[in-house]
Amino acid sequence: MAKEIAFSKLIREHQGLIYKVASIYTNTKQDQEDLFQEIVYQLWKYFDSFRNESKITTWMYRVGMNTAITYLKKSKRKNLNSIPISEAIIGSSEVSDEVYEERLKQLYQHIQHLNSLEKGLMLLLLEGKSYKEMAEITGLSDSNIGTKISRIKSKLRTNMTKS
């Protein structure tokens, strides 16, 4: 019973993290809810395997992103197109500056065209995660994260100047 209570508390405290991961990899509300539930299920399934060797949120991001990538692979096998980032993420900005919001919307539209790993790295970067934390979450090295982020930024800059 204590395990269930601890898990429920963890999910309540960090549901925003799960929602962000689900939102960046899906478009429709139904897909977000399905992926959210799948992530929660996977967290529950592996809850006993968490050994406190990293922060709980690092572990949650890792499980969430791996689940989302698997979800996307299954979706692509069903001949579904790439799923755009939810307007809900864009609408959640606390800044009311219209120019800023428009630029943020454009950024998210361009992030949509990245591959699954690149989307995940951008999510973590926008969440303010350090390269070290990103490395723990993704299993890549710090230097590899830095290289990939640099290339992603360059790709985004190029694509944004074209449009």
Word description of this protein:
With 163 residues, this protein is mainly α. It has one domain (2-162): Rna Polymerase Sigma Factor, Chain: A (Orthogonal Bundle), CATH 1.10.1740.10. Helix content is 74%, strand content 0%. The chain is built from nine helices and no strands. It has helices at 2-13, 15-24, 29-45, 56-77, 87-91, 98-111, 116-126, 131-138, 142-162. The longest helix has 22 residues, at 56-77. Mean pLDDT is 84; it is low at 79-83 and 86-95.
Output the CATH homologous superfamily. Answer: RNA polymerase sigma factor, region 2, helix turn helix motif
**Count of helical stretches:** 9
How many beta-strand runs? 0
Sheet with most strands: none
The CATH topology is given as Rna Polymerase Sigma Factor, Chain: A
* Helix/strand class: mainly alpha
Low-confidence stretches: 79-83, 86-95
| Terminal-residue CA separation | 55 Å
Element pattern in H and E: HHHHHHHHH
Strand residue content = under 5%
As for the number of domains, it is 1
Mean pLDDT: 84
Please state the overall shape, judged from the principal axes of the Cα atoms: globular
The CATH level-2 architecture is identified as Orthogonal Bundle
Top CATH class: Mainly Alpha
Radius of gyration: 16 Å
- Helix share bin: over 70%
